[in-house]
Amino acid sequence: MTLLSRTLGSYETTAVGLGCMGLSIEGKPSRELAVQTIHDALDAGCRHLDTAWSYYESGGPEQTNENLVREALASWKGPKTEVLVATKVGHYRNFTDGKPTWGVDGRPENLIKRAKESARALGVDAIDLLYMHRPDPKVPYQESIEAMAELVKEGVAKEIGISNVTVEQIDLARGIIGADLTAVQNQFSPIFLDSRDTIKHTQETGLSFVVWSPLGGFRRPKDDTKFDSFRQVAQAHNVSYQEVVLAWELAQGDHVFVLPGAHRPQTILDSLQAGELELSAEELALLG
Ligand SMILES: NC(=O)c1ccc[n+]([C@@H]2O[C@H](COP(=O)([O-])OP(=O)(O)OC[C@H]3O[C@@H](n4cnc5c(N)ncnc54)[C@H](OP(=O)(O)O)[C@@H]3O)[C@@H](O)[C@H]2O)c1
């Protein structure tokens, strides 16, 4: 099956990628099921995997998701060089009041050290697409971004992305990284619409916009009424409402990519169909 493909920097890759986070953080499936989920996604034509240095359980061994992705690719029989593997640096896992949390460390020396560890865990000389995971309020953003630019010069990363950013931060990063900055990864979904300004700005500036938690995240509760109109459209097409959500996000522009997460093959196999789902102008107007 050929899935909808779009241009991200120098890559031609599927508009629907697999967000691998849930496969190795709290609530993860068995290792076997995690590998099966990645293999089935790749077998179905998915060519974009999203991981991060920090996708491991708080208190557990670091980089487990990057190791999982490397192992799953190594044991996959398909064309590995077609797969865009993106990772991120700048976050780490922690505990707050005994609960697992995410810490942020955007110091240049930390970003450089973690990026080299990411390349090693992924088993590559140069990372296809390396994001700075989140701005660190303790570190001037410019300093973090200069380190990301340095990682391209050093050959640790081929292209750079930034994540969880504002329009102003995008412009600052463009000024420092130049053409090697190719992607912005922000949250967007029916329950989180605040990113419309960055979707527009990335389109105007020739960057790709990659959507995280495109289905509103895997944690409950969330305001389910926000999905009512998507359920209505889904009924008419006889597809899942999740497919309609992803198709609506992809319809925001040709520069948009989505990264649905999955804990099992069934959900990603369904999500991968979203690129083929065409929504009418009336349906898009209803969905907002
Ligand atoms: N840059 C960042 O700061 C950042 C932050 C968060 C996430 N991310 C990225 O975004 C990815 C996705 O985020 P996420 O997992 O939080 O949220 P999500 O993709 O919005 O939601 C995942 C949940 O949706 C369910 N699902 C997926 N496709 C489905 C389908 N077709 N039908 C029914 N249910 C479906 C999954 O079910 P099952 O559990 O049953 O499989 C899972 O529970 C992450 O893996 C990560 O790569 C990035």
Automatic annotation (TrEMBL):
Gene3D superfamilies: NADP-dependent oxidoreductase domain. Residues 16-285 form the NADP-dependent oxidoreductase domain. GO terms for cellular component: cytoplasm. Keywords: Oxidoreductase. GO terms for molecular function: oxidoreductase activity. The keyword Oxidoreductase applies. It comes from the Bacteria. InterPro entries: AKR (IPR020471), Aldo-Keto_reductase (IPR050791), NAD(P)_OxRdtase_dom_sf (IPR036812), NADP_OxRdtase_dom (IPR023210). The keyword Cell division does not apply. This is Aldo/keto reductase. It comes from Bombiscardovia coagulans. The lineage of its organism: Bacteria, Bacillati, Actinomycetota, Actinomycetes, Bifidobacteriales.
